[in-house]
Design brief:
heterodimer; A: 211 residues; alpha/beta; 7-stranded mixed beta sheet; 7 strands; 28% helix; disordered C terminus; B: 458 residues; mainly alpha; Cyclin A, domain 1; two-stranded antiparallel sheet; 2% strand; disordered N terminus; Rab-GAP-TBC_dom (chain B)
Chain lengths: 211, 458
């Protein structure tokens, strides 16, 4: 549950980005408050939530910034990429175009985020099996090629939401703790081994599961 | 009003398989895809809520809810904060008593404009039943509607065929006041009105088009007004000198920056300790975006938001600065104890559920704040500099109106025939249900897209 507790060993800033309507806000509310809201509202600007989890015996606190998906809001939201050590780049498995746009979001990160930011590609709405438009394998291959972690989630039925956040926070923790031994209670990360990928050779939509 | 349904399907029927195979794939013709998507969205609203293909997840659970408040919002059963208090009941009785006075006053407003007495009454809250008359009048929307009769209808006809914003609008309608009875059922009447007003406006003020945040405003209007009144009220809100919300929603958000700077100045001047505290905690001013883009909708309880809208329509911009400052003032003690996390939760959730003061107390304090700011000439920021992005429209309104419907149809036909000249991979079934066909069509489209990609790779 959301913790107001100030006891933590690490503080990581993470951003949630991706096209409008892919479920970023519900992923966040599922993770921080274990709530899913069919009546949720579109995000205007940027919203914020936090939760602490335990990683290898250390308390890691995630400060998560949830951003509006509409393109013109990038003028505001991109300022929040700075200082972020992690990004969950979310698309909707039932809307192919939201997956095609992953490319543009990666470019946004390359332009505005720290070079070492850890990026996880998240295919949300995995409960919509009958409407799936993006094959899991295709996205997985794309993520591998671009050095992104990958997971499919459902904020609605909770599948993998915990895992998505835990995985990215663990990944950030590992890259940070390798570089800064023994420095407790530090904000943010810095010096992670993950780099922002170079532009991939092919746009995601061209790749296919059985190529 | 009936709109041409499924024009695209006809294009598919006519699809001629003798053309060169693989000469063009759908992804080569984004215009066609756009057109098809737009058409499919419009059709869903035309078919309404009872169509068989509305996915269950698109509708919130009705079973969970039993209580509706006087504004039309449904609440979870046993939600204590929605139980009417005695104070609340007294307030409603008082309001009902005021209605007669208001009916008289409206006559005066018609002939003489806004009197000081009327302004005072508005600060006490426009009675719920009167908002449908008073709001458009305060905005000058009523006159505009008469001056520009037919404009809305003509825009709407065109917008439904060509607006590039329909996809984003549709995404947001799905997330606009779904806890309000009027907007609860997917594709129901008011959702359709919301689509109409926003789509029409996107073709009227093309510099703003559609921006997230506008759907809440129009939905609020549609709780009280019909489509056309809501449309002109939205327009007045965007361009009238008092409100110019154009400057908030236009790409680049120039007005947001200017107002944010001013808010910091005001806070620093009148509440330096709060200002210093927020700066020290490194709390970003991002919450102002949502506060101002919807004039505090969703960020304070709905009954209070209505009171703020009453005075916002009269006073305009100064309310935005004064109320933002008023929140800091009224909650200074809490705010100066918070960390960034608790501050954000306080702003996003706590005061949205329960402001901590009665609506009347807030309005009283707000009016005091406003008077003080006005006397110090701090109620509005300095005007924009010449080099800043324009906060008002610079282009002609409703350029699409110059285009006859016939030529719009022709252009659409051109896009369709481009498609039917292109490769056709499958023969449509001879007997089919159109609704089912339309639904499956999207699926097949993507299926063949992927298949083509494989062939390309071979």
């Amino acid at each position: 549950m959301g913790s107001r507790d100030d006891e933590y060993d690490y503080l990581f800033k993470v951003v949630l980005i991706g096209d409008s309507g892919v479920g970023k806000s519900n992923l966040l509310s599922r993770f921080t408050r274990n709530e899913f809201n069919l009546e949720s509202k579109s995000t205007i600007g940027v919203e914020f939530a936090t939760r602490s989890i335990s990683v290898e015996g250390k308390t890691v606190k995630a400060q998560i910034w949830d951003t509006a998906g509409q393109e013109r809001y990038r003028a505001i939201t991109s300022a929040y990429y700075r200082g972020a050590v992690g990004a969950l780049l979310v698309y909707d498995i039932a809307k192919h175009v939201t997956y095609e746009n992953v490319e543009r979001w990666l470019k946004e990160l390359r332009d505005h985020a720290d070079q070492n930011i850890v990026i996880m590609l998240v295919g949300n709405k995995s409960d919509l099996r009958h409407l799936r438009a993006v094959p899991t394998d295709e996205a997985k291959i794309y993520a591998e090629r671009n050095q992104l972690s990958f997971i499919e989630t459902s904020a609605l039925d909770s599948t993998n939401v915990e895992a998505a956040f835990t995985n990215i926070l663990t990944e950030i923790y590992k890259s940070v703790s390798n570089k800064h031994v023994g420095s407790d209670r530090q904000g943010y990360g810095g010096g992670s081994g993950t780099i922002i990928p170079a532009p991939p050779t092919e746009p995601p939509k061209k790749q296919c599961c059985n190529s | 009003m009936l709109f041409c349904a499924f024009p695209l399907l006809e294009a598919v029927h006519r699809c001629n398989a003798t053309e060169d195979a693989g000469s063009s794939s759908d992804e080569d013709d984004p215009e066609y895809l756009d057109l098809m998507e737009r058409d499919s969205i419009i059709n869903r609203y035309e078919k309404g809520p009872d169509a068989a293909d509305v996915d269950p997840w698109e509708n919130p659970d009705f079973e969970l809810y039993t209580n509706m408040d006087r504004f039309g919002f449904v609440h979870k059963k046993g939600d204590k904060r929605d139980e009417p208090t005695d104070q609340h009941k007294r307030r409603i009785l008082k309001e009902l008593g005021r209605e007669k006075k208001w009916l008289k006053m409206i006559e005066v407003l018609n002939s003489k404009g806004l009197s000081k007495k009327m302004e005072d009454r508005i600060w006490k809250g426009i009675p719920e039943k009167m908002r449908m008359v008073i709001w458009p009048r305060l905005l000058g929307a009523e006159m505009l509607k008469v001056d520009k009769s037919n404009v809305y209808t003509d825009l709407l006809l065109r917008a439904r065929l060509v607006s590039k914003d329909i996809k984003q609008i549709d995404l947001d309608i799905n997330r606009t006041y779904r806890d309000h009875l009027a907007f609860r059922k997917r594709y129901d009447v008011k959702q359709k009105s919301l689509l109409n007003v926003l789509a029409a406006y996107s073709m009227y003020n093309t510099e703003v088009g559609y921006c997230q945040g506008m759907s809440q405003i129009v939905a609020l209007f549609l709780m009280y007004l019909d489509e056309e009144d809501a449309f002109w009220s939205l327009h007045q809100l965007m361009v009238s000198e008092k409100h110019t919300m154009h400057g908030f929603f236009v790409p680049g958000f120039p007005k947001l920056q200017r107002f944010e700077e001013h808010f910091k100045r005001v806070l620093k001047k009148y509440k330096p300790r709060v200002y210093k505290y927020l700066e020290k905690q490194d709390i970003p001013y991002i919450y102002l975006t949502k506060w101002w883009f919807g004039c505090f909708l969703d960020r304070v309880p709905f009954s209070l938001a209505l009171r703020l809208w009453d005075v916002f329509l009269v006073e305009g911009d100064p309310i935005l600065i004064a109320m933002a400052f008023n929140i800091m003032k009224m909650h200074e003690k809490t705010i100066r104890k918070t960390s960034m996390e608790t501050f954000m939760e306080f702003i996003q959730t706590d005061i949205a559920e329960n402001f901590g003061y009665s609506d009347d107390e807030v309005m009283h304090s707000l009016r005091e704040t406003l008077t003080k700011l006005k006397s110090d000439r701090q109620h509005v920021p300095p005007p924009p500099r010449p080099e800043d992005l324009s906060e008002v429209p610079t282009k002609a309104l409703g350029p699409i109106l110059q285009k006859p419907m016939a030529s719009i149809r022709e252009e659409i036909h051109e896009i369709q025939s481009r498609r039917s000249r292109a490769n056709c991979e499958f023969t449509p079934p001879t007997r089919f249900d159109r609704v089912e066909y339309e639904r499956k069509y999207v699926f097949y489209l993507e299926y063949f897209q992927r298949k083509l990609a494989v062939f390309d790779g071979d």
